[in-house]
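Quick one, tokens below. Sequence please?
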């Protein structure tokens, strides 16, 4: 039996985690790893203990902030990083697998936390209809390796 690559395992997990999201707009999953070990996971949605957008506002999602974004959303990358740090895990030098390339705000957090590599499945720019992935551009400019996942997802029941 051929063993799957860790990149495939972690991206499949990120895709499956995205299915846990309560967001109406987009489901995103993230897996934070270090030296072939998972140190944290996350998916996008409101902070624990607040509203689940798909239950509270099933037709339109959560109220919008002044810039038109979700007023409650924490991005998948943020959730994974926050949980790791809250539990005293070291994220310096880690790799994060995410189903949607990081937005600029998440990219700044990833860089600041010392995460050294980002592997993403789909482009945030394509999702938002903008010309380039600002988050990826930022990460690369400041020395964080950011690569589009090119592996094979075989244990995903359905793509988001």
């Amino acid at each position: 039996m051929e063993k799957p690559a860790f990149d495939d395992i972690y991206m499949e997990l990120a895709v499956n985690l995205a299915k846990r999201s309560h967001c109406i707009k987009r489901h995103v999953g993230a897996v934070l790893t270090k030296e072939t070990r998972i140190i944290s996971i996350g998916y996008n949605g409101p902070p624990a203990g607040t509203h689940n957008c798909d239950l509270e506002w099933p037709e339109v999602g959560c109220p919008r902030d002044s810039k038109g974004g979700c007023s409650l959303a924490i991005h998948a990358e943020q959730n994974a990083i926050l949980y790791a740090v809250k539990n005293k895990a070291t994220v310096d030098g880690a790799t994060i697998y995410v189903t949607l390339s990081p937005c600029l705000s998440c990219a700044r957090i990833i860089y600041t936390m010392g995460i050294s590599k980002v592997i993403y499945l789909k482009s945030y720019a394509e999702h938002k209809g903008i010309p380039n992935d600002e988050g990826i551009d930022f990460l690369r400019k400041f020395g964080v390796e950011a690569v589009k996942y090119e592996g094979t997802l075989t244990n995903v029941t359905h793509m988001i």
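The longest strand covers residues 37-43. The chain has a mean pLDDT of 89.
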